[in-house]
Specification:
By secondary structure, the protein is of the alpha+beta class. Helices cover about 50% and strands about 20% of the residues. It is built from 14 helices and 17 strands. The strands form 5 sheets. Strands 1, 2, 10, 12, 13 and 17 form a 6-stranded mixed beta sheet that branches. A 5-stranded mixed beta sheet has the order 4-5-7-6-8, with helices on both faces. The two termini are about 35 Å apart.
Length: about 450
């Protein structure tokens, strides 16, 4: 893997380590606001939080708009523009040796592969469970109730099967509902209908596929315990959504809640979990909370209170997102030779205030002659020594080899005022963006 890719991965790892707990905190606060709106709103909140925990560590914005200094020179009907853009601040930069970065990268990759393997193993076990299950012999009354529930949920071609392996009602795959062996004969009809309705709600919502997608989405942050809590929030809120759908399809919230409690008493606590990858009625150990949420559904917010809650959640989320991506931690390779101390990295816009002499780069003559001109940016890294002279200039982001040479030749002629620290001139690191743009 290229070194830049390794740096990016370590950068993502470090940012996710501190951003994931903040996303969890925001999700917990937001869940308080939306819990009284609807189970679906609560579930969307947790799913959004899981997505943000995965995406935010890869994002970065500048909290304060930088000032771009530029100068243009007309060349063959076009112009070359040198833009000095904000770089990474010294406070937001972490230097790691290549060996340390390689160790962190390999450890992170190993953990991620482990969780990816767990997903594959769970899906394979679930598929084997579905294949080994047998169709349940349905009595005429049960068959009619099953078909009526399928019609009520708009589910077609659903199969009701029994298995000696599954330990609780579960939805497996896109169209299969599994029940433990002898479950049909020992559970009262009303409670059996509650279990079937709950699992058909999972089938209607395609929760089996969604759960697999959420697990894949979470892979980059799967190492983090706070990500596990986010996933738990997604699972718990998913069950409340299915509870609401099942209660609506049956005799109402109170009757459905009683059936849930009776089922919980009938199935021992240690046997309520479903198969790996399956979604079952007792996949989460939050029965009391689910019943409480179900009973509170009649006390939903409305009107101004609902609008205020939604507005508060949006403002809270927007503020948290902006603050987190604005304080993105940047990883840099510690390439200084042995014996030389780490230099201060100064933002490019600050160094631009000390810039005294600028020489504009020229488009490569061969590129102009062959009409092989491209527009783009070449980013250079350099050290400005105590006298304000550029040294150790190197390409950070290449545009094209001939353009890189042109940019290097120009920046070698730039001159800065010495950068002062406590009144003394020091050598500092900085970056320069050379933007090539020609009007076609």
């Amino acid at each position: 893997m290229e070194r830049s890719s390794m740096i990016w991965m370590v950068d993502y790892l470090l940012n996710s380590a501190w951003q994931t707990p903040l996303v969890l905190l925001v999700a917990l606060i937001a869940a308080r606001f939306v819990a009284r709106l609807s189970p679906a709103a609560l579930h969307r909140t947790w799913v959004t939080a899981l997505a943000l925990a995965t995406v935010l560590p890869a994002c970065r914005i500048d909290a304060w708009p930088g000032i771009a200094w530029w100068h243009a020179a007309t060349i063959a009907g076009g112009r070359v523009q040198v833009t000095i853009l904000p770089g990474a601040a010294a406070a937001g930069s972490l230097r790691l040796s290549p060996v340390m970065m390689a160790v962190w990268f390999m450890l992170y990759a190993a953990i991620t592969c482990y969780f990816a393997g767990r997903i594959v193993w769970g899906l394979w076990k679930t598929e084997m469970l579905r294949r080994n299950a047998s169709a349940s012999p349905l009595s005429e009354p049960l068959r009619q109730r099953w078909e009526a529930l399928c019609a009520r949920f708009g589910v077609t071609h659903a199969a009701l099967c029994v298995s000696s392996t599954v330990l609780g009602p579960a939805a497996v795959g896109s169209r299969t509902v599994l029940l433990p062996s002898e479950f049909i004969g020992t559970v009262p009809a009303r409670d059996l209908d509650a279990a079937l309705a709950h699992e058909l709600a999972h089938v209607q919502r395609s929760d089996f596929v969604k759960n697999a997608a959420y697990a894949v989405l979470m892979l980059p942050v799967a190492y983090h315990p706070c990500a596990w809590l986010l996933q738990k929030g997604v699972a718990e809120s998913r069950e409340t959504v299915c509870d609401a759908l099942a209660a609506e399809a049956l005799d109402g919230r109170r009757c459905y809640a009683r059936s849930l409690l009776r089922l919980a008493m009938a199935i021992p606590a240690g046997l309520r979990g479903g198969a790996p990858g399956a979604v079952g009625i007792f996949d989460t150990n939050t029965l009391e909370r689910r019943v409480g949420i179900m009973m509170d559904q009649g006390k939903r917010l409305s009107g101004g209170s609902r609008l205020a809650a939604v507005t508060a959640v949006l403002l809270l989320t927007a503020g948290a997102v902006v603050s987190m991506v604005s304080t993105h931690l940047t990883v840099r390779a510690a390439d200084n030779p042995p014996g030389r101390p780490h230099m201060l990295h100064v933002k490019a816009d600050i160094m631009a205030e000390n810039l005294e002499t600028k020489v504009m780069p020229k488009y490569p003559e061969e590129a102009k002659a062959n009409h092989n001109i491209v527009n783009g940016t070449c980013t250079l890294g350099l050290i400005v020594n105590e006298k304000g002279l550029p040294t150790e200039i190197h390409v950070v982001k290449s545009l094209r080899q001939d353009y890189d040479k042109s940019a290097l030749a120009a920046v070698r002629q730039w001159r800065w005022k010495p950068f002062l620290l406590n009144g003394d001139p020091i050598a500092v690191e900085t970056t320069v963006d050379v933007v090539y743009h020609i009007d076609q």
